[in-house]
Amino acid sequence: MRGxxxxxxxxxxxxxxxxxxxxxxxxxxxxxxxxxxxxxxxIEALRAANAGGALAYGQDPWTTRSAERFRALFEADVEVxxxxxxxxxxxxxxxxxxxxxxx
Length: 103
Hints:
The chain has helices at residues 40-49, 61-74, 86-97, and strands at residues 6-8, 15-17. Strands 1-2 form a two-stranded antiparallel ribbon. The chain has 103 residues and is mostly helical. The protein has a domain at 60-103.
């Protein structure tokens, strides 16, 4: 018998339960923020931004407004580079701060 959450292994007659059990999230964690849901205010901001069209990759009003806020915060003409995920961020920061090892 084949159930929705079980499958029979081809090499044996043992049933394997493939039900995914998600543990309760810890109170504090340094795990990736990609593993958690978004705050309701973030979802609402995305919903509002999703109305109508806009050019991507820095040509949209949200990116411009955000960069202006960083300039005001640092009181300097800073450039803002947005990345998705930790690896892209770490690579970008490393290349900006470290000297090349070869001439």
